[in-house]
Amino acid sequence: MLSALQRWFFTLGAEYGVDPLVFGLIYVGAIPCFVTSVAWLVRNVQRGRSILLPAMCTSFCFVSAYIYLAVAGENIPSWVWVFIGGMMLLGAFFTARQIKKKLNEPKSKRHGWTF
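and the corresponding structure tokens:
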């Protein structure tokens, strides 16, 4: 059953013009950059500095794999875009909640980032 699932997964890449491994590498590879960008954003908020650049970096890291899908993909079904949109909204909600939580913590507890 596992091999059938793998075969199906990799045929999706050929069918839609997207390499699943590249998508996965971008998705996973963006996580450390995303966490670093969120920390940078929080630090700039706390110091009263501009959050434009860290917010842009955070947003880019958040959607980088989907940018690849949009650029390289062909004939992506609309339900996939709806699913991705839902995932992005949910992810944005939890990210904003985590940022607010970090901003409200005493400085002594801000050393650890957990997402």
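(Above: one complete record from the training split.) Helices lie at 2-16, 20-47, 52-72, 78-104.
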